[in-house]
Specification:
Blueprint lengths: L1 E3 L5 H7 L8 H12 L5 E8 L5 E9 L5 E7 L1 E6 L7 E4 L3 E8 L2 E19 L3 E17 L7 E18 L4 E19 L4 E19 L3 H10 L10 E8 L2 E8 L5 E8 L2 E8 L2 E16 L7 E16 L5 E16 L1 H7 L10 E13 L10 H6 L2 E14 L2 E12 L6 E11 L1 H11 L4 H14 L1 E2 L5 E8 L5 E3 L2 E2 L2
Antiparallel strand pairs: 1-2, 2-3, 3-4, 3-5, 4-7, 5-6, 6-8, 7-8, 8-9, 9-10, 10-11, 11-12, 12-13, 12-14, 13-16, 14-15, 15-17, 16-17, 17-18, 18-19, 19-20, 20-21, 21-22, 22-23, 23-25, 24-25, 25-26, 26-27
Length: 496
């Protein structure tokens, strides 16, 4: 039994290690031993070199920081065999059936099996540059737990169909790219909690999923190892990556049943969705968008026979500095929800007479900020909390806030700066807002009995302080100013 001190991520690197481009025992051992200095976990394994030049990997055992087993291979072996043709140099075999035990405190908590039907996994290149192509008609991951004390019993499976993945890894330059397409992914699970008498069955299907990624300057194993060891920055200024993906229609359903036989049924679906993330010059930007989101709830455990929520569109993005030298760090956040609606049977619980507007709601939020770091961020992992506490916000731009719901329309924008020179943060700036439909909604709520007379009077007094009647009926405007001395005023009238 050989030993290798490495992280769990080392298993993934085995499949793309340039050592297997030539498949000599020395190359394999060198690659594994190079990983040994990088992490705090441990992998034990058996490695065999056959007469035809093949290298066989079997009996993998992953240990935790306390040398407790986390994963133990119980069946199968992975073979890296030479190919005698002009296209590829290495053929990865043995993926038809692999089995593992997941462990906790030395006790098996679940079994995992991985099977491949009609697959090809081949590589070519050199010790420094490896290209791999992976294609499989059907790959299945099954997991089960026969009932460990204190844990629910479950069975779960993940099935990928029509998978094609191409990867290029340049180990000398710590860069590479990957493109993956999956025609269909199906997940199924059944969970049972005997003591609580609750069981849950779930099924999800994802259609036509595509992922693409490029990275540079990021030796992943070294960074993950340094992150765990709190020794090196997880991100450097020269690091970069770009990841994007799209998905077609997604459908999922679940059924939860309790001891009394009552149920909650959930059905959800989405249309096309997309995401992308990019790291460049220390700035991380991520965006998620989707359309046609819908969720329906039903069942005897609910106070209504059926309820549904739908959203025509979602778009959200976040940009934050993850590696900052001395100077200003800028960031931004945006959120857009289009046509958010709930079914009438939900509305009828709070508004049975239909007096409030049930038109779909819209929300837009667009913010930007800037801050100053006295010292660089991520100078050392152990100092992260201290460094973040040194962030001094300098500006906040509210580029847009808009809300349309229950007959009220609100639009606002503004900008603030922050003075940190006196040891505490002092804001200065202004917000502008315009709202319509507020009078009508307040009158409707009062007529419904939702707003008692004293609450309605307080609301009216607050409106008189904060709002100015607009040019059109049932419209108001407001300008909130914060002066350098901390004085807050609304429409020119001090509030303090």
């Amino acid at each position: 039994m050989k030993f290798l001190f490495a992280g769990v991520s080392g298993l993934a690197l085995l499949a793309t290690s340039p050592a297997y481009a030539v498949l000599t025992p020395a190359d394999v051992t060198d690659r594994l031993e190079a990983m040994a200095a990088l992490a705090d976990g441990a992998i034990q394994y058996d490695l065999e070199t056959r007469e035809d030049g093949s290298v066989v990997l079997r009996d993998i055992l992953i240990l935790g920081p306390d040398d407790e087993p986390l994963l133990r291979q119980t069946q199968g072996e992975i073979v890296f065999a030479p190919i005698l043709n002009d296209d590829f140099e290495v053929d990865v075999q043995g993926l038809e059936a692999l089995s593992f035990d997941l462990m906790e405190d030395g006790v098996q908590i679940s079994e995992v099996s991985i099977t491949h039907d009609d697959y090809t996994y081949q590589m070519r290149g050199s010790a420094e540059l490896v290209e791999s192509v992976y294609m499989v008609s059907r790959a299945t991951v099954d997991m089960s737990n026969d009932g460990v004390a204190g844990m629910p019993t479950f069975t779960a499976s993940l099935i990928g169909e029509g998978i094609t993945s191409e990867t290029v890894s340049n180990f000398a330059r710590s860069e590479g790219s990957m493109s993956t397409r999956i025609e269909r992914v199906t997940t199924e699970s059944l969970t049972s909690q005997a003591q609580a008498g609750v069981s849950t069955r779930a099924l999800s299907v994802y259609e036509d999923t595509i992922y693409q990624a490029e990275w540079a300057g990021m030796p992943l194993a070294e960074r993950l190892a340094g992150l765990r060891a709190e020794e090196i920055p997880p991100v450097l200024k020269q690091d970069s990556f770009a990841v994007s993906g799209t998905s077609g229609q997604t459908r999922s359903a679940s059924e939860m049943t309790n001891r009394g036989g009552t149920t909650i049924l959930t059905d959800a679906s989405t249309g096309a969705s997309a995401f992308n993330a990019e790291l460049k010059e220390g700035q991380l930007t991520a965006q998620i968008s989707g359309e046609g989101l819908a969720v329906t709830l039903a069942g005897t455990a609910l106070p209504f026979p059926k309820a549904s929520v739908s959203l025509a569109g979602l778009d959200t993005s976040l940009s934050i500095p993850v590696m900052v030298e001395k100077g200003t760090a800028n960031g931004a956040y945006s959120l857009r929800l289009d046509q958010l609606s709930v079914s009438d049977n939900v509305w009828n619980m709070v508004d049975p007479q239909g007096q409030l507007s049930r038109d779909p709601a819209d929300l837009v939020l667009d913010l930007a900020f800037g801050g100053q770091f006295e010292d660089g961020l991520f100078a050392q992992m152990s100092e992260i909390e201290q460094d973040i506490s040194r962030l001094k916000f300098e500006s906040l731009d509210v580029d847009e806030v808009s809300l349309s719901a229950i007959g009220v329309d609100l639009v606002a924008d503004g900008a603030f700066t922050f003075d940190n020179s006196q040891g505490e943060t002092v804001p200065q700036g202004s917000m502008n807002a315009e709202v319509s439909g507020l009078d009508g909604v307040i009158e409707t709520l009062a007529g419904m009995g939702v707003l008692p007379p004293e609450i309605m009077m307080s609301a009216r007094m607050m409106m008189g302080l904060m709002l100015v009647p607009g040019d059109r009926p049932d419209t108001y405007t407001s300008v909130i100013d914060v002066a350098p001395d901390g004085t807050v005023s609304a429409n020119g009238v001090p509030l303090q």
